[in-house]
Each structure stands twice: as structure tokens, then as C-alpha cells.
Amino acid sequence: MSGTSWGRYPRPAQQHLLMLRDRAAPLPPFSGSALPHGNGRSYGDSCLNDGGTLLCTRGLDRFIAFDPASGVLRCEAGVLLADILDLAVGQGWFLPVTPGTKYVTVGGAIANDVHGKNHHVAGCFSEHVNGFELLRSDGSRRWCSKTENADWFAATVAGLGLTGVITWAELRLQRVRGPWLGCETHRFDNLDEFFALSAASERDYEYTVAWIDCAARGAALGRGHFIRANHAAASDGPRPGRRRLGVPLTPPLSLINGLSLRAFNTLYFHRQRGRVSHALSHYEPYFYPLDAIADWNRIYGPRGFLQYQCVLPPAQAQAGLEELLRRIAASGSGSFLAVLKVFGTRPSAGILSFPRPGATLALDFPNNGQATFALLDALDEVVAGAGGAVYPAKDARLAGERFRQYFPAWNTLEPYLDPRFSSGFWRRVTE
Amino acid sequence: MRRILIIGATSAIAEATAREFAARGDALCLVGRDAGRLAAIAQDLGVRGAVRTATATLDVTDFAAHAGVIDLAERELGGLDTLLVAHGTLTDQAEAEASVDTLRREFDINAISVMALLTPVANRFAKQGFGSIAVISSVAGDRGRMSNYVYGSAKAAVSAFLSGLRQRLQKSGVNVLTIKPGFVDTPMTKDFPKGALWAKPEDVAKGIVKAIDKGRSVVYLPWFWSLIMLVIRNVPEFVFKRVKL
């Protein structure tokens, strides 16, 4: 338990860590402000509380009940999605929605209302949450669902932990026929092709996502790979190795720079010779390619990195993306993994839920100080101009004014905030 | 399938070990002080695959209550073949130096209660002709050190007791395992700064289950503590007494 965030920026100077281990117990005494902290996979400072206390929930990692007939699971909030997969896949159940890492807690998945490659059919994580218990600093406990304390449900879903501690939750898993996915990868040369592929795949494919070469310029701008997949009927196949690679230490400098980026992106684009390839993939490499490398965030060196994920409304999506890609390519500060996906139209449940109709782009940038921050501000101009938004779970630098523009309903959260809870992110964007 | 009684079942190492057993479908009786936490752990183990779980509350220094708890476990699980003793407190050394009451209480919890529980279970296992006894002692019991010799000497008593018990039960088909964890990141050690030597309870738990299955006698967890303690045990006393450890 380190009390840091995944981007390793910013670094909190001082936080007091308190471990929660008993879901029935009252919160331990703390002075100043507190914030629930799960597995620390939020990228910026939404899971940090510099100068205050973190209520670490990983000790709340017990299952409560699982019905293998209905797929309804009750568990404590510190259970990892990885634990759920270990329990459920063998019994024919899978997460209804999963982000790109399985090392997040259930509480964190609710508090950020995470989404996945199936957003266009399944919506956000909270769509599959029957309810959860919310424990406040005054000792009160509420069961929150879409029908009971529905206002508290809407405030706590994507509420960044600011409304209280989620102690346990009830989820509905989805039925699958095994751990395999049938995947199809299409190479595309520009954003026109991407949008056409995405629209053509939405109905028949549960999972769609694209990787985009954000070092490409000119005619190559917007090229990438589009991957669509469905759970497969196959019950067996080559199991991936369980061996987990790791980055044992933090190199003194970021290994990600302009040179390595262009080379990687170009190689990756040409990895696939033909236009289309088919494969049967186990869910681990398909959903969680980076989880295979423990502590991969260390490759960005001691200064850490910044992730930027934005969404642009449908009408502005293509022009906006082109402008974003032009600005990124011009800066020379590209991203290893630029991920592009078209969200569906299902309404998000949380006041601060990020997903909304449109195209979402996620990028990693090594922290090169001022230059990086200036680039991200320039990207914000495009996103704000298009009426889009940036994802708080990934943010470490957004100006308060921008946040309030992206989430105009932000202050309707106010009556639900726990008066003794706060976070680095919240102070930054509201004070 | 094992029928397992765990004393001190809410401890982090015991809970992690119980999950290993549950995942392969064993039956477990969990004993501790806090009924609510025991119930939460029992639910969890049930979801993870335990065929049967039972719980009982016990303060280990209530010696008169020991027999009742062992009977209950045997009844609930339909027999008993494995005992894991995992309870204990990390003694505040300064307090135990200042107060004989503290010293005696710590010995009751960490040494006498362990031996008191082992005695009737050992007799039952000897009589039935099979069984596995595993007890969490500590590397601290290998040599008394100024920083924690009250805790260490209680653990030394447990280790010596287990060594004798192992010899005695050898012929009866009962295995006795002495577990000596090094530094483990648990609530018991939450106030210590953590370095590279610290292990996670889940890793120690895997080591415990493996050692029980293999019928080992003494196991250091993680393994490298056997080397560290080999050195510490063999430092000559005239040097050792001048070192601060």
C-alpha cells in the first residue's frame, strides 16, 4: 500500500494511510479530511488526498454471496475485478463491463463509473450494479440503488469517493461460454474508415476499440487498427502463460521519447500485413494486455506520466479528433497507446459519469514538464470548443474552469459530498 | 478434503491460508474473538469453495473454554484432521519490561494458550492415528533479541514444545509443522516501516498450505529467512551481546 496514483504524478508529500478491514466497523478516527482509496489505479490525483488521510479499502476484500444460477454477486468494495474473474469465469460468468486493467477495486469501478470496449451495448459499470452500501463519516449507512436512495446512487456513482465509503455492493455478472473471444482486426488508413468500421460493427460485435498511430502526420494521419470481438463458444484453447513480467525499478529517465514513439507506432501499424486478421484470444491478453507487465507505469521514469482521455460529441467527433491528432503529432510528444472508441447512447447514471455519446480518445504522455502541460491545455481548447469532456479518473492537471465546463452539473453533487471527505482533484477543480 | 480447525482465524495470515484451503473445497471451523468478522470470513470462504464452514468465538486465555470449542469443531465438520494455530499478539517490549502483569499476559496468549490447545488436539489425533498440526511460531523465537525478547521467548517456548510433540507423534502418523514467518505485512505489524524483506500474507499462506500438504517439520516463510536466522543463531554470544538487534 503506497498511497500513490498510477501516473506517479503528482506525488503527495504527506498522507496518512488508514486500513479498513471490517465492513461492519465504524470508520477509524481521523483528523482533517479523508478519501477512500482502492488499488490506486486512477492516474492523477482523484485517488490522492495530500495533507489528509486515505481510507484504504483493499482490506475489505471478502465475497459475501454468489449465485451461480443468476450471476448475482455480493462482495466488499475492496475486492479486485481480478478476484471476481478468478471466481466466476470457471463457472461461466464474466464482468459485465471491464476497464483496461483488472487490478481495480469494485468500489473504485463504481466511484469512477468505469466503461469498457462494450460501452455501446452494455453502458457503464453502474448499469450492472444492483446497489451498494454507503458509509458516511457521521457513521450513517445507506443502501443506494436505482430505486432506493436513488439520488445518493447518482451522486456516488462516478462520485470519486467524495460522498462516503462504499463498503459492499451487489453486481450482476454476464453469462459467457468460456474464457475465449473471437477477435477480428482491421487496419484502417484514416478516420473516415475508422468511423465506417465502428458504425458497421456496433450491432454485431459486443466489443469494439481501435488503436491509433498518433505519431503519424499528413496522409497517414488517423491510421490504426480496429479490433472487434465477441465472446466465443470455444471452451478450450491454448491458455496464456501465468508468468507475469515486471518492471523491477524506475529508470532514471523516461524510456518513452519522440524517437522510441515513432518507431513503436510505425512498427505496430505494420505488424499486421493484411487488412484483416482473425484470432481466438483468451480474455486476459484481449482485455488486459498491460496487466501482463507488472508496474509498467515505471517505464516513464521518476517524473511519471499523464494520461489524457476525452470524449467529443458525435457531430464534432471527426473534425475534433483530426485537430487533436494534428496538435499531438506536431508536438512530437506522442503516445504509445492511443485508444479510440465510439461510445454508445446509453445514458450514464452518475452526476459526474464521463461516458456520453461521441468518440473517446485516450493517450499517455511522459511528463516532460511545461511542454506536456502546454500540449494538454491545447488539447483542452479543442475538447471544450467541441462541447466534449475530459475523464476525471485520468486527470492530474485540468483547470477548474475547464472541469466545470465539462461537467456543468458538478455543483448538484454538493449536497451529497461528505463534509469530512476531499481529494487533491476536488480541491484543484473546485477551489 | 481436509477438516480444518483454525484458531486466530481473523488474523491476516490465517485468513489468507483459509482462502487457499477453501478454493480447493476443504471444510473449515474458524475460531476467534470477533463473531462479526468471523461470520464475514466464513461467508467469503463459502463463496470461494469451502464445502462447509463453522465459527466459534473464543478468548484463548479462557482455558476452560478450549475443550468446548474443539468439540464443536469436530461436531460441525464431522471430524477433524488439521489444526492451524495462528493467534497471537505482538508484545510491546517496553511495556513487558516494566510490568510483570503484561509479561504474564503475553505468555498466556502467545505460549501457554497454544500449548493448552495443542495438548487435547494432539491426544485426539494420536488416538485416531492421523492428523496434521500446524502452528505459527516466529523467527523471533530462534534467538532472544533486546528489541522483542518477551515475544521471542514465548515463541521459543512454542517452537521447543512443537519439536518435542513432533517426536512424540511421529509414530502415530500425526505431522507437526512449525511455521516461522519473517516480516509479514499485516495489521499486527502496521506501524513498522516496510522494506524489501517484507512478505505478503497471501505468499506466506501458499507456503503454509504447501508445507502442510508435504508433511514438513519446520518451515521458514519466505524461505530466505532460514539463511538469515542461520546467521543470527550462530553469531557467538560475546559478539551478539554487543549488537543492537
From TrEMBL, chain A:
Keyword line: FAD, Flavoprotein, Oxidoreductase
Family: Belongs to the oxygen-dependent FAD-linked oxidoreductase family.
InterPro entries, sorted: FAD-bd_PCMH, FAD-bd_PCMH-like_sf, FAD-bd_PCMH_sub2, FAD-linked_Oxidoreductases_BP, Oxid_FAD_bind_N
Designated name of the protein: FAD-binding oxidoreductase
Record-annotated FAD-binding PCMH-type domain positions: 1-176
SUPFAM superfamilies noted in UniProt: FAD-binding/transporter-associated domain-like
Pfam families named among the record's database cross-references: FAD_binding_4 (PF01565)
Superkingdom of the organism of origin: Bacteria
UniProtKB/TrEMBL annotation, chain B:
Keywords: Oxidoreductase
InterPro entries (UniProt xref): NAD(P)-bd_dom_sf (IPR036291), Sc_DH/Rdtase_CS (IPR020904), SDR_fam (IPR002347)
Xref: PROSITE patterns: ADH_SHORT (PS00061)
Pfam families assigned to the protein according to its UniProt record, in alphabetical order: adh_short
Similarity-based family: Belongs to the short-chain dehydrogenases/reductases (SDR) family.
PANTHER family in the cross-refs: DEHYDROGENASE/REDUCTASE SDR FAMILY MEMBER 7B, SHORT CHAIN DEHYDROGENASE FAMILY PROTEIN
Name this protein carries in UniProt: SDR family oxidoreductase
Lineage: Bacteria, Pseudomonadati, Pseudomonadota, Gammaproteobacteria, Lysobacterales
